[in-house]
Amino acid sequence: MIAGGWVNHLWQSTVFAAAAGLPTIAFRKNRAHVRYWMWLGASCKFLLPFWLLIGLGSHIHWAAGVTRVTAPAVSFSAVRIAVPFDATAPATPAPGSAIDWVPGATLAVWACGFAWIALIRVRGWLRVGAAVRASAPVEIAVPIEVRAAPGLLEPGVVGLWRPILLLPDGIAERLTPRQLEAVLAHELCHARRRDNLTAALHMIVEAIFWFHPLVWWIGARLVEERERACDEAVLSLGGQPRDYAEAILSVCRLYVESPLGCVPGVTGADLKRRIHAILLGRVAGDLNFAKKAALWVAGMASLAAPVMIGMMHAPPMRAQSPSAAPQKFEVVSVKPCTDVTLPSGGGRGNSSPGRLSTGCTTVAYLIRSAYELYGSGHFARDPAYPPIDGGPAWIQSDRFAIDARAAGAPSEGTMMGPMMQTILADRFQLKIHRETREVPVYDLTVAKGGARLTPFQEGSCTPVDFGNGVPGTRPANGCRQVIGGSGPVREMTAQGVTIDQFRKLLFLIMDRPVIDKTGISGLYDFHLEFGMTEATPMLSTEGRPVFGAPPEDPGGPSIFAVLERQFGLKLERSRGPREFLVIDGVERPTAN
Fold this sequence. Notes:
This protein is α+β, with helices and mostly antiparallel strands. The chain is about 40% helix and about 20% strand.
């Protein structure tokens, strides 16, 4: 996953840099500082993954009163274009595969390059720091502190937050007054522009992405444009082109260039081109209204596009849509379960038509019941239900007992679903929305050689959809759907099920959702025995499924091998959309 994420981030940053660099051609006759900021934006993109902006957008709710909305297909397609490479790299190799040493070797190479770049930067900073410590204050009438240091280091601005102008000792005797004035004007321009701070940002980008040629090319463009911007500023202030050019050449002859990009001096960039431009004495024009508007629109669009994608994946939803005019309870009592004599339950308690008694249960279970188990007004459980994301810890631990009475005789499904949503909104101040995210999944496909399934024998038993109906009920002669076994070996029996129902059963024991991509219809019988692995972490405790660490000895072939050998089916690691229930706000209930 990490490797795929890096590849996607590099792809996005490269495309963004190209998109930011091409327009600089259209601005070549304008001031250099315009092109500088365009290149700086391309550099900063390497430090800003799009997924951060998409995540920000996913928390912005652009509509209200929608109880269930699926993310538009266009937004998911946009994500796939922006993220073309599969970010799913299994944490452990698939059963029977060799250990993949490529990620570790790649990380080691990157770490060596990062350490080398960091070492070069530290050496340069130690050299500059030694010059600062050996310097002494100089009385020059300029807005920042000026210090003179022994040695041959060229004039430069040092410091990110409180910059000082560091001059070499004796520079006033080596330059004419007009030349010194031009050099000071150049350095003060660097200080006003905060070039040392922006250069430090790009140095971080170079250290992290040292392997990317485009990063170093952007760095060269930044130095070139910042020096040209300062040259234009000096000439705009009335500096004489000849004196200024001679000052730069004198500094080049007498002093050594700054060892760090965040200590901007006088002699950077293509010196020949700079001197030629200075002697011509031409200062580029400012932006007209059309170009300013185009830059603003492009900048806002580059930030707004990923945010909009995130918003499209976060259809807002309050605990109940006011436009739906939901049926409400006439009387509702909500009590915290502080008394040990209160009965405990799983959200159903002793209910009857028109009366609801949940017993002691958590708010998290009530949310699950209201929006998933009974969200449609009747029981319909899917093992791949949306996980709950967000909310305080107490919704998983504190228990409450709800007793309510409704007019008429609404069913238990209506009371535990739509009507419970109203209680959660009114008494717990619940605000919630659904959000679609791309997550690791298993694709259930047909293996090479074709499927080898056992067709269901009509009349042998009555097919049952375990995910729908009334909890705890089972028709006479109902088909078996059992997950059990002892020791490290587990077994699954499923009679008269579709492939979609079978993949739901698989998700009960797998470490990620299973998506049916077989295209097979009909009813089939399954019986398989498999060894416990990290991909099937389900254990059995007193007949209840729980998850835990697999044993060291799986005791049998993995479920991957069993499915392929016995049924001609294959589980492949992939990525796909999954819905999440995201809690935006919830409070402990108000007193009765």
